[in-house]
Design a protein that fits this description.
The chain is mostly beta strands and 124 residues long. It has no helices and 11 strands.
């Protein structure tokens, strides 16, 4: 059974940093495209970053490029999203998600399994 669990969210001041983690169980993340997505209050869910191991494809949304960094620990079957220079508009629930067809895409529609999310709140 696939399970994804995010952690690391919290309340941080503008300009601060957080590291989000997503631990996978029941699957090997090497066989999936992995996405980080977020949903801000009153807004639609949007892609933040995605990674596809076979090609090394790694994409970021323009709004987070140069501030957020995707990384992974194969031994722990875990991926991370490092959030730096946070802004109030980054406030959202952040999700990790996987796609078995390995489509690395920022569209939420391609992802088939999701974690419950972790909340990030950035104060001004």
């Amino acid at each position: 059974q696939v399970q994804l669990v995010e952690s690391g969210g919290g309340l941080v001041q503008s300009g601060g940093s957080l590291r989000l983690s997503c631990v996978a169980s029941g699957i090997n993340l090497d066989n999936y495209a992995i996405g980080w997505l977020r949903q801000a209050p009153g807004k639609e869910r949007e892609g933040v970053s995605c990674f596809r191991r076979p090609t090394g494809s790694l994409y970021y949304a323009e709004s987070v490029k140069d501030r957020f960094t995707f990384s992974r620990d194969n031994d722990k079957n875990t991926v991370y999203l490092h959030l730096n220079n946070l802004k109030p508009e980054d406030t959202a629930v952040y999700y990790c998600a996987i796609d078995g067809s390995q489509i690395c895409d920022l569209s939420p529609l391609v992802y088939e399994d999701w974690g419950p999310g972790t909340r990030v709140t950035v104060s001004s």
